[in-house]
Structure prediction request, 139 residues.
Amino acid sequence: MAGKRTFTMIKPSAVAAGHAGDILSMIEKAGFRLVAMKLVHLSKHQAGLFYAEHDGKSFYEDLTRFMSSGPIIAAILEKEEAVAEFRKLIGATDPSKADAGTVRKLYGISMTENAVHGSDADATAEREGSFYFSQLDRV
Ligand code: CMP
Prediction:
């Protein structure tokens, strides 16, 4: 059975542009409950640790530089079938290929600056949530 939780980050360009409130509103209106949330400015090293699975790929340097360029909002979200439901809400990784009305279509600029991150599987959601939040931070 699919899990009830997923993990997201609102990326630096979307926070800097003042879209965090609108994106959080879309998330809540889609039926997700906020379990944990924080505003964080990652160092480049920390961004590299978070995206370690992509180390060595052509976009890794740009991605980690961008993700450490300003504050992000990290959050754990709860809903039935959370991972799949959230990926539907945010749309394709490349904003130009995302469906109309999705978060990335509305607020994404490019593959790297694609407004939000969403976990790709239950195990990833647990690992990514644990990167930012201890058990004590989750309600
Ligand atoms: P995200 O959901 O945060 O997960 C990994 C990120 O790497 C992804 O969103 C994109 O921002 C970025 N990414 C993945 N594939 C590519 C690519 N081919 N070129 C540039 N960036 C990519």
User: Anything to note?
Assistant: Helices lie at 12-16, 20-29, 44-50, 60-67, 82-90, 103-107, 122-132. Residues 5-137 form a domain with the Alpha-Beta Plaits fold (CATH 3.30.70.141).
